[in-house]
C-alpha cells in the first residue's frame, strides 16, 4: 500500500487529471442568494390596503334584555381509570374542530334539557334563551348563579347522539358540566359602539357574534 499523502484529507481534483487522480466530477456553479429583506423594510413600505367584508345590522327591540349573564362552561370527562379530560381541548385542525364542536353542542343541548329546575323550559326554540360557543363561553338571559358561584351537573351519556359517543373515549365513565358565573354584560351600553377603539366594550360584540352563530351550531 502506498504511503498516505499529507493532503489525504483533501478532495481529489474535479477533472481527475492531477494530484492523486480521481473520478470525473462536473463543475458546480456558485449559488448566490438574494439579500434577505428585513421585516422592518416590509412594514415601512406597506401602504393602505382596501378589504371587502360582510356586515349586517342587529336591531334591539323592546324585548331585548338589559343584560345577559356570562359563564364559563366546561365539560369534563372521566374515564374508568379516574383520569379527567377537558373536552373543549384537542387538536386544532379543521376536521377535529368540527367534530369537537358538534359533540360539545350536543352535550350542551342534553345538559339544558335534562335540568329544567336549573334552566327552565328549553324545548324547541326556547333553548335560544341561552348561547354557547362550543368552547367555554356560555350566556344566559336569566340569572342562573351569583357571580363567582359554581355549579356541577352530570350529563346523561345515554342521551347523547351516536356520533357524539363515537367521538368520545370508549372507556368513558362520566361527563360532568362545570358552570362558573363570571360576568354580567350590559347589552345597551353605548361603549360597545364607541368611536374610540381603546374604549370600546368588546364583551357585547363577542356575545352578539356567539348568539348569531347558534343556528349554525344547532344542525
Structure write-up:
With 219 residues, the protein is an alpha+beta fold. Helix content is 24%, strand content 20%. It has a domain at 67-217. It contains 6 helices and 6 strands, in the order αββααβββαβαα. A hairpin with a 4-residue loop joins strand 1 (67-79) and strand 2 (84-86). Residues 1-12 and 14-19 have low confidence and may be disordered.
Task: Please supply descriptive tags for the structure shown above.
disordered N terminus, alpha+beta, 219 residues, 6 helices, 6-stranded antiparallel beta sheet
Layout of secondary structure:
Blueprint: H1 39-45, E1 67-79, E2 84-86, H2 94-114, H3 116-119, E3 130-132, E4 137-140, E5 150-155, H4 162-167, E6 172-186, H5 202-212, H6 214-217
**Could you list the spans in which at least 5 consecutive residues all have pLDDT below 50?**
1-12, 14-19
Please tell me how large the radius of gyration is. Answer: 31 Å
Task: Work out the helix count.
Answer: 6
Class by SSE composition = alpha+beta
Amino acid at each position: 500500500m502506498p504511503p498516505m499523502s499529507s493532503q489525504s484529507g483533501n478532495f481529489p481534483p474535479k477533472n481527475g487529471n492531477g494530484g492523486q487522480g480521481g473520478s470525473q466530477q462536473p463543475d458546480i456553479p456558485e449559488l448566490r442568494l438574494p439579500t434577505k429583506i428585513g421585516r422592518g423594510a416590509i412594514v415601512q413600505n406597506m401602504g393602505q390596503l382596501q378589504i371587502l367584508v360582510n356586515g349586517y345590522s342587529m336591531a334591539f327591540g323592546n324585548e331585548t334584555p338589559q343584560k345577559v349573564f356570562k359563564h364559563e362552561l366546561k365539560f369534563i370527562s372521566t374515564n374508568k381509570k379516574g383520569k379527567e379530560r377537558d373536552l373543549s381541548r384537542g387538536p386544532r385542525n379543521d376536521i377535529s374542530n368540527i367534530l369537537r364542536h358538534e359533540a360539545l353542542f350536543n352535550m350542551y343541548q342534553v345538559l339544558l334539557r335534562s335540568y329544567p329546575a336549573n334552566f327552565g323550559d328549553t324545548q324547541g326554540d326556547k333553548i335560544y334563551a341561552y348561547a354557547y360557543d362550543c368552547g367555554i363561553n356560555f350566556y344566559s338571559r336569566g340569572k342562573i348563579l351569583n357571580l363567582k358561584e359554581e355549579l356541577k351537573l352530570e350529563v346523561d351519556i345515554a342521551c347523547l347522539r351516536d356520533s357524539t359517543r363515537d367521538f368520545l373515549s370508549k372507556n368513558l365513565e362520566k361527563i360532568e358540566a362545570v358552570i362558573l358565573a363570571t360576568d354580567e354584560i350590559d347589552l345597551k351600553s353605548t361603549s360597545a359602539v364607541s368611536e374610540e377603539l381603546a374604549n370600546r366594550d368588546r364583551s357585547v360584540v363577542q356575545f352578539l357574534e356567539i348568539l348569531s352563530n347558534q343556528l349554525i351550531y344547532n344542525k
